[in-house]
Amino acid sequence: MERIDPKTLHLSGEFAEQNLGTTVGADGGVTVRIIATQFMFVPRCIAVPRGRPVTLRFATPDVIHGLLITGTNVNTMVVPGFVAQVYTTFTSTGDLLMPCHEYCGLGHSDMWATVQTVPESEFKPDRDGRVSCAQR
Ligand code: CUA
């Protein structure tokens, strides 16, 4: 288990705001960093490629959350103080829902994100290696 300080995770380091979302490394590896917080995921939408391994990393500054991505094997808890890491390869394109599935407070049922799965031809990192959701 990787530890992370829930009080400062959004201030600096890999879960600072500018590092959230999808990043493509120099080796082509795709990593997505997401904060789960009462009552939203940040960012609310992530873009991922179809057919390439993706590493998803989650952390929370407040309480225990859980998440799954519909139609995939992604299903994990996000516990304060730890990084939750999941590997998957998305096999189809389209928008998938990523709801919180652990009761985390009154806004729990409003807590969900969108996973935009796109073909490789549409998965274009910018100069910084970042990929954002297409506006639709
Ligand atoms: Cu977060 Cu339920």
Number of strands: 12
The CA-CA distance between the termini, in Å, is: 37 Å
User: Structural class of the secondary elements?
Assistant: mainly beta
Number of discrete helical segments: 0
- Average of the residue pLDDT scores: 96
Q: Which value, in Å, is the CA radius of gyration? A: 14 Å
Residues in β-strands, percent: 35-45%
Shape: globular
User: How is the quaternary structure best described?
Assistant: single chain
Sequence of secondary-structure elements: EEEEEEEEEEEE
Spans of at least 5 consecutive residues whose pLDDT stays below 50 are none
Helix-residue proportion: under 10%
Q: What characterizes the major β-sheet?
A: 7 strands, mixed
Name the hetero compounds present.
Answer: dinuclear copper ion
Describe this structure in words.
The chain is mainly β. It has strands at 2-3, 21-24, 30-37, 40-42, 45-49, 53-59, 65-68, 75-78, 82-89, 94-99, 112-118, 130-131. Bound molecules: dinuclear copper ion (CUA). Dinuclear copper ion is lined by residues 36, 65, 100, 102-104, 108, 111. Residues 36, 65, 100, 102-104, 108, 111 line the site of dinuclear copper ion.
